[in-house]
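Table 4 source record.
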Amino acid sequence: MFLHCVAENKAEVKLPWHKFRQQGNSLFGFRLVVGIIAFVSIALFLCMTIVPIVLLARGSSYAAPAMIAGIVLLALIAISLGIVFALILKFMEDFVVPIMYLRGYQCMDAWSEFRSLLAGNKGKFTLYILFQIVIAIAIGIIILALVCVTCCCAGCIMAIPYIGTVFLLPILVFSRSYSLYYLGQYGGQYNVFVPTEPAGEQVSLPPEPEQ
């Protein structure tokens, strides 16, 4: 719904709710499955680090270097999995959802099209992710500075569910629009924005046939 409103510069709820109901259900199911897999996978590797940590805490000197190496390895695997799942959710939000919006696809069909686009532009999408990290850090610094300058008043406002969203709406619209404009660079078939006629410009009509 938010993508629809940003793309068409409208504030609608009922229309996109019904129009994209099937796509929304498909997206919810995909997020749920990915979330469960991510939680189970990361929790499994983190839990596997508990045994060597307990043994080390009890002062067990048996194979201490091996246990420390195992703890580090398992922690690195958990962090790597976290990064992988974070990238999956990021690509889904920034690019798969717009493709679903444009084509009317279900989630997996949109992923199939995006994978083809990603395969031919791996370097460009890598730079996109790196720049997104820079933007996220900059936005975080701005929000933190705003909270500090206002003596945490801005933080209290942002903590209120609806009012906080309205307060952060410019940042949310910027973040949503940035990925849409980036995706649009790969061809007109990925442009989600509705073309509009410039103000005051008249559309020329074809000349009438002579009688």
